[in-house]
Amino acid sequence: MEKDNFKSKLGIVAATAGSAVGLGNLWGFSYKAGTNGGGTFVILYLLAILFIGIPVMLTEFVIGREGRDGPVGSIEKITGSKKSPFVIAGYTGTISTFLILSFYSVIAGWSLHYLATTIVTGFSKFAAADADTAKFFADSATDLPINILFQGIFMALTVAVVMFGIQNGIERVSKIMMPILFVIIILLVMYSLTLSGFSEAVKFLFVPSELPEGKSLFSVAAAALGQAFFSLSLGMGAVITYARAVNDDININTITMQVAVCDTLIALLAGLAIFPIIFSTPGLEPAQSAGLAFIALPVAFGQMPGGYIIGNAFFLLLVIAALTSSISMLENTLTVILEKTKINRKVGTIALGIVTFLFGILSQLGLGFTSKILSFTKGDGFLDQLDKLTMIYLIPVGALILVLLVGYRMKPEVIRKQINNDKIANIFIPYIKYVAPILIGIVMVAGFLGI
Ligand code: TRP
After folding, report:
1. 325 contacts 21 by C-beta, under 8 angstroms
2. Which of 329, 335, 402 to mutate for ligand 1's pocket (most ligand atoms within 8 Å of CB)?
3. How many other CB atoms are there within 10 angstroms of residue 121's CB atom?
4. Given the CA of residue 329, which atom of ligand 1 is nearest to it?
5. Is the predicted pLDDT of residue 129 greater than 70, yes or no?
């Protein structure tokens, strides 16, 4: 494959943090915190990032930079065999990013649709009753041609970046988008600081809470770990794909820490931006599941002073965050195609973009024409099925295989060379061998059994 490494350390952090920070932080984290009772979920999430997320991310950096190839090629190189069972993780990863992108672009398309509409009309039509807003959302979600159009525009944007490769496409765009994203979210939090509901939101997010009815501590922990994996883009080879383009003189330990901190910070800031708005608006509740961003917040934007600016800034934020994640997903699946065939990058990107778009239409169809949309995280729409398939099965299995690969197949000297820091390597090597697989395994089984 072509050599196309990142130009700067800042570019690596921007691209990898861009991959990590996405709808999962802004939309997923807040509604999962909301439905899992708040503080307890958040604390478990932070523990999951620290004890599982960070070691697994470093694992992927080690694999990608040592293998210097996409997820499949890197694993083949490290095991020295194309038939090694470890190679399965390369393929499950590729399939995961393909499936996730197919429905991610649907949700990103809604965000783009909201933005395009509310820039012109403002949010006043949402201000009235909840029911009307829900109806607007249901109508717009079932307005198939429009939604397919916006999904298509979003996919075209993604293709337009990935086509130009790592240095000229992904790195360049991430370096522009990530600072904008930071500025928008800080402004939103500053606005929320002025609201009466701010202290209630802080309490809701950070004070350990009673578990919601019908949920065990274990199920909340499993949700928190699933969210940590998804949010850091782990278990799918996405980090391997970027790591293959990281020069040898870059310290991957600091990059891992910086990305993890960025991702966590943005999720928490998103919570601090969103929940004060919810608590300050009469009639809105935090436990809203998926409707939080697309139903509850627009109601608030319609009622509050400055709602036009805040609301549009919020949807712009969603679109930017989704784009820097979607380019990483497309690049991941594409890399496996490019390493296995002789297709040229531009043609491959466009073809894969079209196939992903067409497959994504199934998610639109699975949602549309039914009112299930309003509860699709519990319902059985196609989008929901894909979400579960990747979250519960593909991602944890992928992560477990990658951890076992580094723990049991990679020579310790090679790991030490990549980590290039004795203190960290002395902790990392036994940890990845004995502790991480057990932690991942426990949560994986919990997910399978639906505990
Ligand atoms: N981390 C992204 C988010 O929080 C979503 C995501 C999951 C992702 N897996 C990925 C992004 C793989 C890029 C590559 O929204």
Report:
1. yes
2. 329
3. 11
4. 14
5. no
- The string of DSSP codes covering 115-140 is HHHHHHH-SHHHHS-HHHHHHHHHHH
- Residues 6+ positions from 426 with CB-CB distance below 8 Å: none
Which amino acids bring their CB within 6 angstroms of ligand 1?
19-20, 22-25, 97, 100, 230-231, 233, 236, 238, 325, 328-329, 332
| Pocket probe mutation, ligand 1, options 16, 19, 389, max atoms within 8 Å of Cβ | 19
Are the CB atoms for 104 and 322 separated by under 8 Å? yes
Tally the C-alpha atoms within 13 A of residue 116's C-alpha that lie toward its C-beta. Answer: 14
Condensed to tens digits (0 to 9), the pLDDT of residues 42-66 reads 999 999 999 999 999 999 999 999 9
Please give the single-letter amino acid code of residue 433. K
pTM over 0.90: yes
Q: pLDDT band at 367, cuts 50/70/90?
A: low
Amino acid symbol at 145: P
Ligand 1 atom nearest the C-alpha of 22 is 15
pLDDT of residue 373: 44
Copy the structure tokens of residue 65.
């930079």
3-state helix, strand, coil in the chain (%, to 5): 80, 0, 20
Percent of the chain with pLDDT over 90: 68
Please state, in angstroms and rounded to a whole number, the distance separating the CA atoms of residues 56 and 260: 11
Q: Which of the residue ranges 72-76, 241-245, 289-293 would you say has the lowest mean pLDDT?
A: 289-293
Residue with tokens 């991610």: 104
377 CA from centroid of ligand 1 (Å): 18
Instruction: Provide the token pair at 276.
Output: 């004060």
CA of 171 to the centre of ligand 1 (A): 17
Mutation probe of ligand 1 site: the residue of 225, 232, 268, 325 with most atoms within 8 A of C-beta: 325
What's the pLDDT at 133? Answer: 57
Ligand 1 atom, smallest distance to 322 CA: 15
Q: Identify the residue whose C-alpha is closest to ligand 1 atom 12.
A: 233
Query: For residue 423, how far is its CA from the centre of ligand 1 (angstroms)?
Result: 30
Q: Are 418 and 74 in contact (CB under 8 A)?
A: no
Per-residue pLDDT, 213: 80
